[in-house]
Write a structure and sequence with these properties.
The complex is a heterodimer of chains A (476) and B (219). By secondary structure, chain A is an alpha/beta fold. Helix content of chain A is 51%, strand content 11%. Chain A contains 23 helices and 12 strands. In chain A, strands 1-10-7-4-2-3 form a 6-stranded parallel sheet, sandwiched between helices. Chain A has a 4-stranded mixed sheet with strand order 8-5-6-9. Chain B is an alpha/beta fold and 219 residues long. Chain B is globular and about 70 Å long. The chains are: A alpha/beta (476), B alpha/beta (219).
Chain lengths: 476, 219
């Protein structure tokens, strides 16, 4: 990402097309999620249980990974361990080359975005085609996902129509079913001739070795059924201990992600095609991707590993709602992205993402596994400032602030001085530009001038007059 | 590499603070009678864009043929009769006699013959399957793969007809879950037709999977 975070934010807010797309996403996703949660009367208890399941999985992650490995192998699957992105890409490429693969059909996987899989496979001369409609659109545009669940949410139908006209020769249309049908026809050819199918994993069950993959379009089913080889990529934290645990997670996943009671297709895979079976892949490979997770598990941001990638916090976030996913410049956007990205990629490199939050707590309210996102955002901010040293004036200014706050008299003088200063700087009650280092604050917002009468002054005046703020006598 | 990753995890767990969590019991739903479950399933399935039919066992074979005629489906990808409700015994013979073409389900493992078979299956106009369960609360059917029960009959066809029997209806996923077969290589829960909301979050039916999903309860 070449441009700075503030300039990406400014560009997003100044893009009217993006603003319309984001507004539409916000209203639809909020209403659908609320209705779906209301259909689960015991939602609060289920969310507590979902969190407990994920906490248990993380707290004995080594044990569950070994159990998963043994169970997948017992079913005839092959398990690979990848320490980082480069190794994960090498493993997938190796599997593809061992089968002389030329064409790879891929269903949606955020881990594959994280490790840059497509670029790595294409560099080796393979053709990779994204088959999720949103991801397919983005691939044709050489664009990136802006949302964990709805990757092309930043685009409007006119953008897709122009793209399909150019790339698929589709006559101009704003009819979404026509656009969808064009993608279906183009991708059918890919499914039937692909040599390898690559998918993500929503949950892996340690006890049984079951891989659970959900999709609405059916592309994940096709990617894991038609090609002779299926490669499933998963972040090594996406594990649940038992099948019963998986059922609990499924109760909250679709409701949180898309506002559905259940996803269109929920597929449970237990190894490759068996001897007498009619279809399905001959080989199943599971790639466990670490890429910073084993280290993050011991740090302050470990709780971010509970995440099940539903994207509810993105839809709820007032900042994401205005700036969209691309402004973050990270693979994982939004509130959870501002924790996951520094947790996996480093606090110094990605810590500034945590500044893009009002700490309102909407993300924590909707999180199906109750991740305390605001608390961790504060931690990321503190660690980032401690690491970068912060602005030169920040530490002395905070010392002066602390000194002023420790005495009632000094507090009174400070408020009086600040009130005088803001009123002097304000036009029509608003300060448009603060001086010196404070100017950063007013770059993107106005500051209200202080009231002429402080709260303490008003309170004592009203007490003297024997009235409350409504002008009537207080209760005896 | 495996050992390095595992030792990193163990090192991290040694220094990690325990994450807080609650143990809240999940209340159970009261049991509903069968007819209530079937009605609830039908309402949910229809709300998802699916079609729901009910047919008496004696009329099941004729009813299936009639549905296929209405769909104008001539080429049919069908599970083995043994994997369908018993009331559909004789359906295969009836379809063949009535001029339908039954597409072979088996995809060969050999690279040479594979493309031709895949192309034939891709040309099928309807898929006929049985089910393991129908879940009323969410409007989903569960299908299990195995000999005679291919995955593509519910996937690669424009219309999917799934036959269920009254004893297969369950209130919630949790009610059926312990009865699920742990043996199958593939179990798929299907909730209505294939769908997407990837363009402007507007719902569109029939992306990569079936555009029509028809559940038929055989009494």
């Amino acid at each position: 990402m070449q441009t700075s975070f503030p300039s990406r934010i400014a560009a997003a807010i100044g893009n009217p097309n993006l603003q319309l797309a984001l507004d539409g996403n916000f209203v639809r996703s909020r209403d659908k999620r609320e209705a779906a949660m209301a259909s689960l009367p015991e939602a609060d208890a289920v969310r507590d249980r979902a969190r407990a399941i994920r906490v248990e999985a993380l707290s004995r992650l080594d044990h569950y990974l070994l159990q998963l490995e043994a169970a997948v192998q017992a079913q005839g699957g092959v398990v690979h361990w990848a320490a980082d992105a480069a190794e994960a890409n090498r493993i997938v490429l190796g599997i593809a080359q061992a089968h002389n693969a030329k064409l790879i059909a891929k269903s949606k996987s955020m881990v594959s975005e994280e490790i840059g899989l497509n670029a790595a496979l294409e560099a080796a001369g393979l053709r990779v085609v994204e088959t999720d409609l949103g991801e397919y659109i983005l691939q044709l545009r050489h664009d990136r996902p802006s949302h964990i669940v709805a990757p092309a949410i930043h685009l409007r139908r006119s953008d897709v129509a122009a793209l399909f006209e150019k790339e698929l020769g589709l006559p101009p249309t704003d009819d979404i079913p026509v656009l969808t049908a064009a993608a279906r026809a183009a991708l059918r050819q890919v499914f039937v001739s692909a040599d390898v199918g690559v998918s993500g994993v929503n949950f892996a069950v340690a006890q049984s070795g079951t891989l659970c993959i959900v999709s609405n379009e059916g592309n994940a089913r096709l990617c894991t059924t038609l090609p002779k080889v299926h490669v499933a990529l998963m972040g090594l934290e996406r594990i649940v201990p038992t099948m019963a645990d998986l059922e609990v997670m499924l109760r909250v996943l679709a409701r949180s992600a898309t506002g559905q009671k259940i996803t269109g297709y929920t597929t449970l895979l237990n190894g490759p095609r068996r001897a007498a079976e009619l279809d399905g892949p001959d080989e199943l490979h599971l790639v466990l991707v670490d890429n910073g997770r084993s280290r993050a598990l011991g740090g302050e941001l470990a709780e971010s590993l509970l995440c099940i990638r539903c994207g509810a916090c993105l839809n709820a976030c007032p900042v994401y709602r205005e700036i969209g996913g691309h402004a973050y410049g990270s693979v994982y956007p939004g509130p959870i992205g501002a924790i996951v990205t520094p947790a996996l990629g480093g606090l110094m490199e990605f810590g500034e993402l945590a500044q893009a939050s009002t700490l309102c707590g909407a993300c924590r309210d909707v999180c199906p596994v109750r991740i305390d996102i605001p608390n961790m955002l504060l931690h990321v901010r503190a660690a980032h400032v401690a690491g970068t040293g912060g602005a030169w004036w920040l530490a002395p200014a905070l010392r002066v602030w602390a000194w002023a706050m420790r005495s009632t008299a000094r507090y009174g003088w400070a408020v009086a001085a600040a009130g005088w200063a803001t009123r002097a700087l304000a036009t029509q009650g608003w300060v448009r530009r603060l001086p010196g280092p404070l100017g950063g604050w007013t770059q993107r917002r106005d500051f209200p001038a202080f009231a002429t009468e402080t709260f303490r002054d008003r309170l004592s005046r009203q007490r003297r007059a024997g009235v409350n703020e409504y002008g009537s006598a207080p209760d005896a | 590499m495996r050992d390095t990753i595992l030792s990193n995890i163990r090192q991290s767990l040694n220094s990690a603070r325990a994450l807080p969590h609650l143990h809240t019991p999940i209340p159970r739903h009261p049991d509903s009678d069968r007819e209530t479950l079937i009605a609830q399933f039908a309402a949910e399935w229809r709300a998802l864009g699916g079609q729901f039919e009910r047919v008496r066992a004696a009329d099941a074979v004729a009813g299936a043929c009639e549905l296929l005629r209405k769909l104008e489906a001539r080429r049919v990808l069908m599970w083995d009769e043994a994997a369908l409700p018993p009331a559909l015994t004789g359906l295969k013979t009836m379809l063949e006699r009535s001029g339908f073409t039954l597409v072979p389900q088996m995809i060969p493992r050999e690279a040479l013959t594979r493309p031709g078979v895949v192309a034939a299956i891709e040309a099928a106009e309807a898929g006929l399957t049985g089910a393991e369960a129908a879940i009323a609360q969410v409007g989903a059917v569960a299908l299990r793969s195995g000999p005679g029960r291919g995955r593509l009959a519910s996937l690669l066809v424009p219309a999917h007809l799934v036959f269920v029997t009254p004893d297969q209806f369950h209130a919630t996923l949790a009610d059926w879950w312990p009865r699920m077969s742990a043996e199958a290589s593939n179990i798929t829960l299907i909730a209505g037709p294939s769908r997407t909301s990837d363009i402007e979050r507007v719902l569109t039916l029939g992306v990569h999977g079936p555009k029509q999903a028809i559940a038929i309860c055989v009494d």
